[in-house]
Amino acid sequence: MRKAALMFLAIASLALAGFAQDAGTCRLPVNLEKLAAKASEVVDVDMDENMLQFAGNFMNKNKPGEAQARKLVSGLKSLCVRSFEFDQEAQYAPEDLEALRAQLRAPVWSRMVGVRSKRDRENVDVFFKIEKGAVTGLAVIAAEPKELTFVHIDGMIDPDTLGKLGGQFGIPKVEM
Question: Could you tell me if 138 and 127 are in contact, meaning their C-beta atoms sit under 8 angstroms apart?
């Protein structure tokens, strides 16, 4: 289940990232340069509102799945993905994760999901920013021994629309 949810976020991010060429910067102040210097592979995606709207234009509003994706994208201000793969374990410290989590604290952010797996040594945190009863931000931190991924989505996110994308575009259907 957690892998399906993470896959959903990753696929959605990568699908949008395919349209990115020269976008703005991440709105959440994240300082990850020191991790990038240690990583053997870095994925760095920044899409501002204009680029997201541009990507939405490629989605067919007459196809139900694409119409849902287009609706979801229409309320977003930015998308930021930082993913680091390392050749060896222990290339990032627990303090690095805490520095990310510290930026996602109450009262602005609420952690909704926290998964800790001793067997797989995988940790996933999902945070939501809720203002006046509406989801206005989503952040995911996924940590594995040799990989660290951070996703930040800023803007209005309709949970119903997000859920309806499951089972389409290769996105796994996740029952909530």
Answer: yes
In contact, 55 and 16? CB cutoff 8 Å: yes
| Distance, CA of 16 to CA of 21 (rounded, Å) | 11
Distances in whole angstroms, Cα of residue 7 to Cα of each of 36, 96, 171: 22, 23, 7
pLDDT score for 147 = 94
Question: Rounded distance, CA 93 to CA 18, Å?
Answer: 30
Q: What angle in degrees, to the nearest 10, is found between the helix axes of 64-74 and 49-56?
A: 170
Element housing 110 (H / E): strand 109-117
H helical segments located in the chain: 2-17, 33-38, 49-56, 64-74, 94-102, 159-164
Q: Rounded to 5 degrees, what are φ and ψ at 154?
A: -115, 130
What's the CA gap between 143 and 7, in Å, rounded?
14
Sign of CA dihedral 86, 20, 154, 103: positive
pLDDT value at 25 more than 60: no
Residue type, position 37, single letter: A
At residue 62 the predicted structure's pLDDT band, cuts being 50, 70 and 90, is confident
**pLDDT of 138-155, one tens digit each?**
888 999 999 999 888 888
